[in-house]
Write a structure and sequence with these properties.
- The protein is of the alpha/beta class and 354 residues long.
- The chain is 28% helix and 27% strand.
- It has two domains: 134 residues, 3-Layer(bba) Sandwich (FAD/NAD(P)-binding domain); 123 residues, FAD/NAD(P)-binding domain, CATH 3.50.50.
- It is built from nine helices and 23 strands.
- The longest helix has 19 residues.
- It binds flavin-adenine dinucleotide.
Length: 354
């Protein structure tokens, strides 16, 4: 038996399993390794942290198959030389084909104290801690959120809905929030925050973080809790791999998504260097192509030299449970319709993932 090992049952890993398992050749087995016993819906961690959805609502069971083994544990090393994956407290797992889909982590841009004194929504474990801290705060407490990209904006608005008694301040480096979106969308979101008493600090430069103190341009500002949503980088295990990477530390791949010279090691999702910003949608679209390549490879069919370029359908963000914003095929959408589209996407995702 030849073994495909999938590292990480996130959006990329899950989609590969869904496409591979129904057609798994008789001589193949699959091992999924993840620290969590379920597929976690990372795109909803802002709501988990704010306290508007329960833990159970942000997870989905992994698929079942007679030749799928699920190994729960912390991966500690990937050895491409030995073709083995090392785990914290279990025997190493050998692979014939490997898919690395370990997602990303916070990036602190060398801001002293940021890794120690800020909360995070990058893993389910950290989002649970953030939930506890935020929801145990006394009325009137001050919460600083650093970074007004999609996840910072969603967290700030959801927290405002969950705890309107808190004073939420959103810090952003840019002249206007949501730098990846158009100015029109940014202004819409900014006015939503003004209406809901969430303070926005533009052109911020966080220079240091200490316990309950955030330094903006070296000026200390007191906060009862600080959440970091100001940047991401690939998983440390991937950063430690001795392979070619781009400026963000993402692995450079062939057009068929494997390591140059190693057609048995694929990288999917946030760890892969791709022509779009990392997202769950991108991880899934790339995973479709990887699943197709694996099926061709196992069937002894030729692997195409180029693949169709991945097209993104758009991005949706929420502003609490009633409003939203985003782009659908490059068309800006705001308000209740945008929120309905976002909820619909989540509903469909859960429906198709059992
Ligand atoms: C608050 C928030 C909102 C977002 N909203 C959107 C959105 O609206 N739309 C969108 O497209 N994207 C969104 N994203 C981005 C999206 O969540 C990621 O791009 C996506 O999860 C990447 O998928 P992935 O498969 O690469 O990794 P992930 O989905 O992060 O999966 C990685 C998996 O690896 C496992 N893992 C990691 N390290 C180890 C280890 N050492 N040992 C064992 N297991 C390990 C994890 O448990 C996890 O299951 C959002 C992100 C955040 C944080």
């Amino acid at each position: 038996m030849k073994n495909l090992v999938v590292l990480g049952g996130g959006y990329g890993g899950m989609r590969i399993l869904q496409r591979i398992l129904p057609h798994l050749p008789e001589d193949r087995t699959v091992t999924l390794i993840d620290r969590s016993p379920y597929h976690c819906l990372k795109t909803e961690y802002y709501a988990l942290a704010a306290g508007t959805v329960s833990d159970q609502e942000v997870r989905v069971s992994f698929p079942e198959h007679e030749r799928l083994t699920i190994a729960y544990g912390e991966i500690t090393e990937i050895s491409l030389e030995e073709r083995k994956v090392y785990l914290n407290d279990k025997e190493p797992v050998s692979y014939d084909d490997l898919v690395i889909g370990l997602g990303c982590e916070d990036k602190y841009h060398n801001v002293p104290g940021a890794d120690v004194y800020t909360l995070s929504i990058q893993t389910i474990e950290k989002s649970r801690t953030t939930y506890q801290v935020l929801n145990n705060l006394a009325p009137g407490a001050r919460v600083g959120i650093v970074g007004a990209g999609l996840s910072g904006v969603e967290l700030a608005s959801e927290l405002n809905e969950s705890r309107p008694d808190l004073n939420v301040v959103l810090f952003d480096r840019g002249e206007h929030i949501l730098s990846a979106f158009s100015e029109r969308l940014s202004k819409y979101v900014q006015s939503w925050f003004t209406k809901h008493n969430v303070e926005i600090v533009n052109k911020a430069n966080i220079t240091r973080v200490e316990e309950n103190l955030l330094y903006n341009h070296d000026e200390p500002l007191p906060f009862d809790a600080i959440v970091w949503t100001a940047g991401i980088q690939p998983n440390k295990l991937v950063r430690d791999l001795d392979v070619e990477k781009d400026r963000q530390g993402r692995v450079i791949l062939t057009p068929q998504h494997f390591l140059p010279g190693r057609d048995d090691v694929f990288v999917v999702g946030d760890c892969a260097s791709l022509p779009h910003a990392p997202s769950a949608q991108l991880a899934e679209e790339q995973a479709e192509q990887i699943a197709d390549i694996l099926k061709r490879k196992w069937a002894g069919k030729p692997i195409p030299e180029t693949l169709p370029s991945i097209k993104m359908k758009g991005t949706m963000g929420s502003l609490g449970s009633k409003h939203g914003f985003g782009l659908v095929n490059d068309t800006p959408v705001t308000g209740r319709v945008a929120r309905l589209i976002k909820s619909g996407i989540l509903w469909m995702y859960k429906y198709h993932n059992g």
